[in-house]
Backbone:
């Protein structure tokens, strides 16, 4: 399975958690080598009544924020998988889902017990409109 296919499968869980109101946070982490870009954090925001994703790029010296549609955020995050990030973690109120690449770039997707008890406030407000 290619990176695109496996990450799309993972991101379908992101979209489902947004739809059912369980999404808490999405983080890209574990870089390859020492890179200036350390993490990318994704969270839902509402812009002009439309649910979108805010991507916060955490660099060693600064932060940068971009806002994308839900689908465009997937494409943007996919670009950073394997360059430089080896993992993405979806935190929901039901479970945590980890997308991980090993040294041979084989993909594993594992589910663990949830870390967060509360979903994103912005998401819950949006869904309760």
Residues:
């Amino acid at each position: 399975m290619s990176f695109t296919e496996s990450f799309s499968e993972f991101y379908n869980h992101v979209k489902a958690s947004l739809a059912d109101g369980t999404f808490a946070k999405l983080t890209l982490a574990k870089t390859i080598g020492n890179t200036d870009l350390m993490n990318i954090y994704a969270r839902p925001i509402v812009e002009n009544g439309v649910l979108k994703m805010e991507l916060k790029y955490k660099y060693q010296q600064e932060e940068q924020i971009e806002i994308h549609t839900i689908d465009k955020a997937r494409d943007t995050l996919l670009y950073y998988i394997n360059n430089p990030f080896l993992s993405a973690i979806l935190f929901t109120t039901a479970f945590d889902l980890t997308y991980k690449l090993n040294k041979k770039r084989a993909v594993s997707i594992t589910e663990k017990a949830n870390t967060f008890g509360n979903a994103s406030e912005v998401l819950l407000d949006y869904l309760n409109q």
